[in-house]
Write a structure and sequence with these properties.
With about 90 residues, the protein is mainly alpha-helical. The protein is built from 2 helices and 2 strands, in the order αββα. Strands 1-2 form a two-stranded antiparallel sheet. The termini are far apart.
């Protein structure tokens, strides 16, 4: 039987080392991407909570009063409403 050359052993070890390094690189890339996605999800959740708190604070003290006045038009057959802006009220 023929003996394998000493260079073959070194080449095999080199290929195995490269395969292990490639696997570790792929694994670390996957972990990094998952960590980034998780951090973005946490950030989005925090921003949603912050936005909802602002909405609650904004509308908590809202009495429902507005500068817009709704005027009913009785002249037409179908009763339609028109929105009159404050600038239009002052001019009329």
């Amino acid at each position: 039987m023929q003996d394998l050359s000493p260079g073959f052993g070194l080449i095999s070890i080199g290929i195995a080392a490269m395969a292990i390094l490639g696997f570790l690189f792929a694994l670390s890339t996957k972990v990094r991407d998952e960590t980034t996605v998780h951090d973005l999800r946490v950030r989005v959740f925090d921003m949603r909570i912050h936005y909802l708190r602002k909405l609650i604070e904004t509308y908590k003290n809202d009495t429902g009063e507005s500068d817009v006045e709704i005027v009913m038009d009785d002249e037409s057959d179908n009763s339609t409403s028109a929105v009159v802006e404050p600038e239009q009220r002052q001019a009329a």
